[in-house]
Amino acid sequence: MSRAASTLRARHAVRRLSSSSSASSAEAWDVPFHRLQKQRGQHLLTNPRVLDDIVRRAAIRPGDAVLEVGPGTGNLTARLLASPAARVAAVEIDPRMAAAVSARAAALGLSHKLTVTTGDAMEVEFPEFDVCVSNIPYAISSPLIAKLLFGAYRFRAATLLVQREFARRLVGAPGHGERNHLATNARLVADVTLLMDVSKAEFVPVPGVDSSLVEIRMKEEDRPAEVEPGIGLDEWLEFTRVCFGQHQLQQRRRRQKKKRWKEKTLGTIFKKEEIAMELFRLSRRAEERDGSGPVGGGSDVPRHDGDDVGDGKEEEDCGEVAYSCFSKEGVVAFKERIAGALQSARLDKERPSRLSNDDLLRLLRLFIKRGVHFH
Ligand SMILES: C[S@@+](CC[C@H](N)C(=O)[O-])C[C@H]1O[C@@H](n2cnc3c(N)ncnc32)[C@H](O)[C@@H]1O
Predict the structure, then answer these.
(1) Closest residue (by CA) to atom 18 of ligand 1?
(2) CA–CA separation, 222 vs 326, rounded Å?
(3) pLDDT, mean of residues 248-272
(4) Contacts 24+ apart (CB under 8 A), 197-202
(5) Fewer Cβ atoms within 10 Å of its own Cβ: the N or the C terminal residue of the chain?
(6) Are 77 and 105 in contact (CB under 8 A)?
(7) pLDDT-based confidence at residue 208 (cuts at 50, 70, 90)
(8) Looking at residue 356, what is its pLDDT?
(9) Predicted structure pTM score
(10) Ligand 1 center from residue 229 Cα (angstroms)
């Protein structure tokens, strides 16, 4: 479709939506298409049937507080406001869109149910909510879902329209090549279901990718402190970040260079100098925090040279990244522990995305047993 034709189509679509509620204030949310910012993911969902379907599938209960990230001109917001929800809190980065959605709520006579925060959803503190229903900007899909899942929020479910490939990864089963660590972690605290596919043709302007609606239903209201007795959720999250961080970084590089890329084995990942040294630092901190040595006792915890000085200064210097003050023997011993855990789990030649949560947890238990900490 030519730019001129799609501009025309977009203007018609936005006007059609505007006039369905109130012609008098239509211009308030009729943001001219040529001003829609693709870099902010401003692709408006315009098919009323799909919009209705999303709200129906979100199963909003009377009295619910709804969070919407990225309301745009309010196509979804108008329906959320008309639902049994008690209130809708929208967070929108673009002040023009924030003004448009506020005007639309006013035209519908539903302003009393809406609060709009203008700001970056990754930075603002969300108000309390029961359900999140959003057609989210795809550029922030991963961090936003991580914020919802592992932030301090208590909510029932999030019904989100995301890029189709992302949705497939999020619901991916163990052993599925496209599974990522967000999916692994999401499964610990939530059930993730694919609800329906939505064609890119339903958006204005038409994006380059298709979408899917996913439901993230929290397993419990509270974020669990531990994934199992003795293994804190934060320890697990950091462990999976190390396992899959390389994977995501490499995938991004592969996409950029359009090169074939093979995921690294756990053995290769944990041999990396910067990873080993970071774990060394974290493990020392964990031991100091917990007042414990590695299970099995002994003094094979690598110690850095500053321990002999005892004036606290060296300790402070080594606290962040000044690894040079760790003794060489200590570092070697620590690396041996990492290798030992991998070998005893028989996972050093395995690739993280091929492993189940159980295998990964088994490995983490062995790391912790050897005094290797991730948090
Ligand atoms: C895909 S559009 C969805 C618009 C509307 N909900 C719809 O379905 O038609 C995404 C919206 O998110 C907004 N947005 C982009 N990045 C954002 C961020 N970091 N925080 C909050 N809103 C953001 C954009 O300005 C845009 O209005």
Answers:
(1) 120
(2) 39
(3) 69
(4) 197/164, 198/45, 198/50, 198/161, 202/45, 202/46, 202/47, 202/50
(5) N
(6) yes
(7) very high
(8) 78
(9) 0.70
(10) 40
Confidence of residue 256 (pLDDT cuts 50, 70, 90): low
Nearest to 86 by CA among 128, 145, 28, 147: 128
Interval 361-367 mean pLDDT: 95
Q: Which of 93, 96, 85, 82 is nearest to 28 (CA)?
A: 96
Arithmetic mean of pLDDT, 313-325: 41
Which pLDDT belongs to residue 104?
A: 95
CB-based contacts of 300, cutoff 8 Å, min separation 6: 294, 333, 337
CB atoms within 10 A of CB 274: 9
101 C-beta closer than 6 A to ligand 1:
no
Burial of 169 (0-12, 13-18, 19+ CB in 10 A): buried
| Per-position DSSP letters for 68-94, written without gaps between them | EE--TTSHHHHHHHHSS-SEEEEEES-
Q: Atom of ligand 1 at shortest distance to CA of 124?
A: 20
The answer, yes or no, to whether any atom of ligand 1 lies below 6 A from the CB of 104, is no
pLDDT 10s digits, 135-177: 999 989 988 998 898 777 889 999 999 999 999 988 875 555 4
Per-residue pLDDT tens over the stretch 274-317: 999 999 999 999 888 877 655 333 344 443 333 333 333 333 34
| Residue 283, token pair as written in the block | 């493990």
- Between the CA of 372 and the centroid of ligand 1 the distance, in Å, is 41
Ligand 1 neighbour 121 (Cβ under 6 A)? yes
Q: Which atom of ligand 1 is nearest to the CA of 94?
A: 25
Pick from 33, 69, 159 the residue to mutate for probing ligand 1's pocket: most ligand atoms within 8 Å of its CB.
69
Question: Which residue lies with its CA nearest to atom 15 of ligand 1?
Answer: 40
Q: Distance, CA 132 to ligand 1 centroid (Å)?
A: 14
| pLDDT mean across residues, the chain | 80
Q: Which amino acid is at 83?
A: S
Question: Of all protein residues, whose CA lies closest to atom 14 belonging to ligand 1?
Answer: 70
Q: What is the maximum span of the chain, computed from C-alpha positions, in angstroms?
A: 78
Mean pLDDT of 230-255: 72
The residue whose CA has the least distance to atom 9 of ligand 1 is: 44
Q: Output b/e per residue, 179-197; b: 16+ Cβ within 10 A.
A: bbbbbbbbbbbbebeebee
Helix (H) or strand (E) holding 247: helix 233-257
